[in-house]
Write a structure and sequence with these properties.
five-stranded mixed barrel, single chain, six-stranded mixed β-sheet, 6 helices, alpha/beta
C-alpha cells in the first residue's frame, strides 16, 4: 500500500496510509526494508515529511511495517548539513515555502531570510515571507524599508500575529489545498502560529532567551500537520528552528542566479560570467547597487553567503 511520511528520526518513520487497514492505527511505524532505499542516495536523512512511499505491513506486529519504495518526488526543500557534509531533507512534495520572520523578539534578521529565499529559488518552489509577531512592531524604519524592498523585487509578504489572530484568515486561505513548509529561526513563533491554525496539533511552545533574544529549540524534527484534520484544509510541514541556514546545491559562482533581482544581470558584466561582482569595473550588479536598484543590504548578504560557500567548496 502507499502512504504519506508525517515524521521520523533515527531511521524510524511514521506513515499515514492512504487506506487504513490497521483497525484504527492512524500512523504506521516503519523502518526501511533492507536499510537501503533507491532514490535517497547522498542525503543526510533518507526521507522527510511529505514523501510518499510504498509500505508492507508486519503481520506479527500490528501498527508496524517496512518502507519498500519511494514514490518519485516532485521537489524537495533541503539545507546543507555541515556536520554531516550532506544535504538534509526538511520537506518533500511542497507547494509553497513560508519564510517566517519577526520584526522584534527576536530581532528582524533579513540575512537569514535571504538564505531561505535562495534555497526556495534553488528548489524552484514559490515562497512567501510571513512576518509573525506583527503586534510587536514599533514602526522601526529599517524593518519597514527592508520588507518593502522584498515586496519591490516580487515577493509576497503577509503580516500576522499568533497572539491577536491578525492576518491568520488570509494565511489559512493561502494554505488551503496545499502543502506548505514553514522555515524560520528559533523563537519566531512557528509552533504558536501552527497551534492557532491547527489547535489539535498541541505543539510545545518555547520561551525566548531575553539575554540573547533567541528562541529555544522546541521542534526537534520536521513533522506534517493537517489543518482542520483533512488534506483539503491544507498541510503544514513544521521544521526545526535553526540559527543559521546553509543553502544546499548552490555553487558560489551560481549564487547570483538565486537572488532574483541579481539574476537578470548575470552575464552582462564586462567580464561576463567570470565576474565575481566584487571589484571588477563594468560589473552590472555593483552598478545596480550604486543606482539603488539592488538594496545595499541584499548585496552585503550576497557577499557574505558567497564567501561562506567558497570556504565550503
Amino acid at each position: 500500500m502507499t502512504g504519506l511520511i508525517v515524521r521520523g528520526s533515527n531511521n524510524i518513520f511514521y506513515v499515514r496510509p492512504d487506506t487504513d487497514p490497521c483497525a484504527g492505527n492512524e500512523e504506521i511505524e516503519c523502518r526501511i526494508k533492507g536499510k537501503v532505499l533507491k532514490g535517497v542516495e547522498g542525503y543526510y536523512n533518507p526521507l522527510a515529511p511529505g514523501d510518499r512511499v510504498h509500505i508492507e505491513l508486519d503481520p506479527l506486529h500490528p501498527g508496524k511495517g517496512l518502507v519498500t519504495e519511494l514514490v518519485e518526488r516532485k521537489n524537495a526543500f533541503t539545507r546543507f548539513n555541515q556536520k554531516g557534509m550532506a544535504p538534509q531533507l526538511l520537506a518533500a512534495n511542497v507547494d509553497l515555502v513560508f519564510c517566517l520572520t519577526t520584526p522584534a523578539s527576536p530581532p528582524f534578521r533579513p540575512r537569514f531570510l535571504d538564505r531561505v529565499l535562495v534555497q526556495a529559488e534553488r528548489s524552484q518552489i514559490p515562497s512567501v515571507i510571513v512576518v509573525n509577531k506583527w503586534d510587536l512592531h514599533d514602526g522601526d524604519y529599517d524593518v519597514d524599508e527592508r520588507l518593502e524592498d522584498y515586496r519591490r523585487i516580487g515577493y509576497r509578504l503577509l503580516t500576522v500575529s499568533a497572539v491577536t489572530g491578525a492576518g491568520l484568515e488570509e494565511l489559512a486561505d493561502l494554505i488551503k489545498g496545499r502543502t506548505v513548509v514553514l522555515v524560520g529561526q528559533s523563537g519566531v513563533g512557528k509552533s504558536s502560529l501552527i497551534n492557532r491554525l491547527a489547535p489539535h496539533a498541541g505543539l510545545k511552545v518555547g520561551d525566548l532567551c531575553e539575554k540573547y533574544e533567541r528562541g529555544s529549540h522546541t521542534t526537534t524534527m520536521s513533522r506534517l500537520i493537517e489543518l482542520g484534520g483533512s488534506s483539503g484544509s491544507g498541510r503544514i510541514i513544521d521544521t526545526p528552528g535553526v540559527r543559521r541556514l546553509m543553502p544546499d546545491g548552490v555553487q558560489p559562482g551560481d549564487l547570483a542566479l538565486y537572488f532574483r533581482e541579481f539574476a537578470p544581470l548575470v552575464g552582462q558584466c564586462t567580464y561576463g560570467l567570470s565576474c565575481s561582482h566584487r571589484i571588477e569595473p563594468g560589473c552590472k550588479i555593483m552598478e545596480a547597487v550604486a543606482a539603488g536598484v539592488i538594496h545595499e543590504d541584499r548585496y552585503e548578504s550576497y557577499l557574505r553567503l558567497k564567501e561562506e560557500l567558497e570556504e565550503l567548496y
